[in-house]
Specification:
- The chain is an alpha/beta fold and about 400 residues long.
- It is built from 15 helices and twelve strands.
- Bound molecules: pyridoxal-5'-phosphate.
- Pyridoxal-5'-phosphate binds next to helix 3 and helix 4.
Length: about 400
């Protein structure tokens, strides 16, 4: 387990993804992690009580909603990859986000959330949290002056950003946002699902919590859901485990943890290839006459290229593009005619996925943006973006696939 925020050589990431966490193996121990599916474990009456309040730190195997050895190994590995004090795994990315919000905020508190982020997170923040007496402001967190202006002294407890932000890949400066949060006595949480620890380590840049939808790149194969919160503070993690796993019960299954551990083994290798393929596809799209605009942090001429180079060691494989013509008609042609790229939601798996996200629908149903904020979004996304999660197929085949429908 990590004892402090250390700063290993970045080259160690590939090794940690394979070996991080767990006890030193003894002869006859399996070389690959075992799945332990038991829901309860033999207990020592002298050392463990019955109630959640008796738990200190990562609990010994006791009851699987509290923790499980296979899930615990995943948590240790994630903590090492993100250089946190520990991690708590959840049944999905949304469970991780909801758990963090409910653990760190109470009635009367104020949350600032990126005004462009995963639709489910936007809906949770705007539609559900106010029912619990939590005030929420949506801000373009790429604009640091706007972020600072949105702070309510003494009331703002958490700033939640997503960088790159789904679906227009807008970046927020993590170190600067952390400084603004801390000056106001608030915490910063970063949804780093699209970046992965291969690109960015938000805790090292000053964030307090990192969130991953493990469903995406960390699992990488599109065959399970999962989520995690990794934090710099062990006490915050303890309360997250008690509140969210023991009392809300959104525990990750050991089988899912095992699949994600397996996926992690190739994380650094996959991210290199996702980036290389995304670059080839982005170059093709940029030169295509039907394409109005390509959005990808790795574009040399992109509007946030300097921040991208400073904050990302890998530009990931998710890109979006806007076409000149009718998006709905192209979406239909894609669903019928693409041969390699699946017309499907989600991202970060070995296979390529594309999905059309119409602007007005997203603004009305999820982001609830109006006025200038809505116009800023339209200026980038037009009437809709095609979000393409570039997979690990040969890039030439992906380009051929797109060429046939564009
Ligand atoms: C997918 C995703 C989520 C939600 O994760 P699930 O595992 O689907 O619940 C949250 N944030 C981002 C950026 C995502 O891409």
């Amino acid at each position: 387990m990590t004892d402090a925020l250390h700063d290993p050589d970045p080259a160690a990431l590939a090794t940690l993804a394979l070996h991080g966490g767990g006890a030193r193996p003894a002869p006859t121990d399996p070389v690959s992690p075992a799945i332990i599916t038991a829901s309860s474990f033999h207990a020592d009456p002298a050392s463990i009580g019955f109630s959640a309040a008796a738990l200190e730190g990562a609990p010994p195997p006791f009851y699987a909603r509290w923790g499980n050895p296979t899930v615990a190994l995943l948590e240790e590995r994630l903590a090492l990859l993100e250089q946190g004090a520990g991690a708590v795994a959840f049944a999905s990315g949304m469970a991780a986000v909801a758990a963090l919000f409910l653990a760190r905020l109470k009635a009367g508190d104020h949350l600032i959330v990126s005004n462009v982020c995963y639709a489910g997170v936007a809906e949770l923040a705007h539609d559900l949290l106010p029912r619990h007496g939590i005030a929420v402001s949506a801000v373009d967190t790429s604009d640091l002056a706007a972020l600072e202006a949105a702070i309510r002294p003494g009331q703002t407890r958490l700033i939640h950003i997503e960088t790159p932000a789904n679906p227009i890949l807008r970046l927020t400066d993590i170190a600067a946002a952390a400084a603004i949060a801390h000056a106001a006595g608030a915490e910063l949480s970063v949804d780093s699902t699209i970046a992965t620890p291969v690109a960015t380590r938000p805790l090292v840049l000053g964030a307090d919590h990192v969130i991953h939808s493990l469903t995406k790149y960390l699992c990488g194969h599109g065959d399970t859901l999962g989520g995690a919160v990794i934090s710099r503070d062990a006490a915050a993690l303890r309360s997250l485990r008690t509140d969210s796993l023991i009392h809300y019960g959104a525990t990750l299954s050991p089988f899912s943890a095992w699949l994600i551990l397996r996926g992690l083994e190739t994380l650094t290798l996959r991210m290199r290839q996702h980036e290389e393929n995304a670059r080839a596809v982005a170059d093709f799209l940029q030169s295509h006459p039907a394409v109005e605009r390509v959005l990808w942090p790795g574009l040399a001429q992109g509007p946030q290229a300097d921040l991208a180079r400073r904050q990302m060691q890998n530009f990931s494989g998710l890109l979006s593009f806007v076409i000149k013509g009718d998006g709905a008609a192209l979406a239909q042609r894609m669903a019928e005619n693409l041969r390699r790229i699946a017309y499907a939601v989600s991202l970060g798996k070995t296979k390529s996925l594309i999905f059309h996200i119409p602007t007005e629908e997203l603004l009305a149903s999820s982001f609830h943006l109006q006025g200038k904020a809505a116009q800023d979004y339209r200026d980038v996304a037009g009437r809709g973006v095609f979000r393409l999660s570039v997979g690990l197929e040969d890039a030439t085949d992906l380009i051929r696939d797109l060429e046939a429908v564009l």
